[in-house]
Amino acid sequence: MAENKTQRNDGDVMAYLESVSNKRRREDSLVVLKMMEEVTGEPAEMWGTSIVGFGSYHYRYASGREGDFMLTGFAPRKAALTLYIMGGHERYDELMARLGKHRTGSSCVYINKLADVDLDVLRELIRESVDYMRGANHIAGD
Question: Under a CB-based contact definition with an 8 Å cutoff, are residues 55 and 70 in contact?
Answer without folding.
Answer: yes
